[in-house]
Amino acid sequence: MSSFVTRFAPSPTGYLHLGHAFSALLAFDAAREAGGRFLLRLEDIDRTRCKPAFEAAIFEDLAWLGLEWETPVRRQSDHFEDYRNALVRLKGKNVVYRCFKTRKEIADEIARAPHLGADGPEGPQYTGTPLSKDEESDRIDSGAAFAWRLSLARARDALGGDFSSLSFTEERRGGRGETGTINATPEIFGDPVIARKDYGTSYHIAAVYDDALQGVTHVIRGEDLFPATHLHRLLQALLDLPTPVYRHHRLVTDETGKRFAKRDRSVTLRALRESGETPADIRRRLGAASGV
Ligand code: GLU
After folding, report:
1. Judgement on whether residues 93 and 1 belong to the same structural domain of the protein
2. Which of 14, 72, 192, 255 could anchor a disulfide with 262, C-beta 3.0 to 4.6 Å?
3. Is the model's pTM score more than 0.85?
4. Positions in the chain whose pLDDT score sits under 50
């Protein structure tokens, strides 16, 4: 078996649709072609949006499609401790700070000073202001909720000259045709939230941590996540984790060019299956979409 390891990492927040099938099949086929391994990972840290019924449906739909994956399947909600420890390491490097602001407060602040909020991949490129130790203690004592933001300025200081040379390899392409060696520009996020108020971590920490833990060599996923890779590369550097190769694929769209979303019932794999389509039909439908 080769050293190639890839994964499909859905979030059980709805039924899988054609877009997921495309991503899962690309990863599965790539592992087969390389004589490598294919993993399934459940990204279910958002406990309010993820549902057991959707998790069960993921297993059922992927098996129906003809995919086989290794067991046990890593379920992120069983590993919050790991992600907390990763955050502790970032705290140890002094690159994170508490942010007590509500969305509304941030929106008001940006309305007053629009230069604070240029568009970033996850909303405004907001850079917060760490509070003094005393102010922070007062807020904590009063029970105020906070998120942890990654300070790009402090990350730059922590990494020194290495910061500007961070890069990753893109073997397919990002949404704007980015391919080859990509210079990482995590500053497009401002100071991103990397541990949310509600569940104490983030997709970014969990995905980066798990890709390293599971020895993933190739991340195959939709181009909507290409911008996140800039931040993932920085987190890898700060957490001393290896950087996989990336293959972002284009998103499957309907005939009007609109990408599928979980709310589009008609293209869920179960709806297609119930209407009599076979896994071969699904592969045929997606075949046309499989170009880079
Ligand atoms: N869980 C993410 C999603 O369902 C995929 C994350 C990834 O592949 O890195 O969109």
Report:
1. no
2. 14
3. yes
4. 291-292
